[in-house]
Each structure stands twice: as C-alpha cells, then as structure tokens.
Design goal:
By secondary structure, this protein is an alpha+beta fold. Helices cover 32% and strands 34% of the residues. A three-stranded antiparallel sheet has the order 1-3-2, covered by helices on one side. β2 and β3 form a beta hairpin. The longest helix has 19 residues. The radius of gyration is 17 Å and the shape is flat.
Length: 98
C-alpha cells in the first residue's frame, strides 16, 4: 500500500496455437509484447507464441481493477478493429496455417 492507494499487477497472457509472423499485427499498443514460451513446467521444449500485457495498477478508489482490465482488453480489441483489417488478417492466417 502506498499512501491510500493499493498496487495491483495486471498480467494478461494470450497463448496462440500457431507461430504467427509478428509483423501481421504491426506495432503493438503500449505495454503489449510478443514472446515465445520455450519450456513447460515439466521442462518439455515448447515453441508457443504468447501475446502479453503487464502493468502495475494503483487503485485509488475511482476505477476498480476489474474495470481497468476490461479497459485494457477493450483497448486491444479497438486496436485490432481500428488499425487492421480483421477479415484480411484472418484470411492470411488461415492461408498460412491451415
């Protein structure tokens, strides 16, 4: 607790089924990153692409943590709808990985 604020870690991980070319989504919004999960808990080699978001959120009594998570997710959905053609992206991915 800092003063009257509470700090929370917001961590969103989206595991993808296939290796997508990073450039298909262009420049990700701030705090969103790509990484590849390479080792499982039982040390089995993996190659799972993961889209992640990480933030330290200070709750001040105005916006709940759940509201902030919803805002982050809605912002990413808006990013996909605004900056990319969803149908074209889906078509490319289907052609590449079908």
């Amino acid at each position: 607790m800092v003063g009257s604020e509470y700090k929370y870690i917001i961590s969103i991980h989206i595991e993808l089924r296939h290796s997508y070319p990073v450039d298909i989504l262009g420049d990700l919004p701030i705090k969103w990153r790509w990484f590849t999960e390479t080792i499982s808990e039982d040390h089995t080699p993996l190659s799972i692409p993961v889209l992640t978001y990480y933030e330290t959120y200070c709750y001040d009594g105005v916006k709940s943590v759940d509201d902030r998570v919803k805002q982050v997710i809605d912002g990413f959905v808006d990013y996909l709808d605004t900056f990319r053609d969803p149908q074209a992206t889906k078509s490319i991915l289907m052609l590449m990985y079908d």
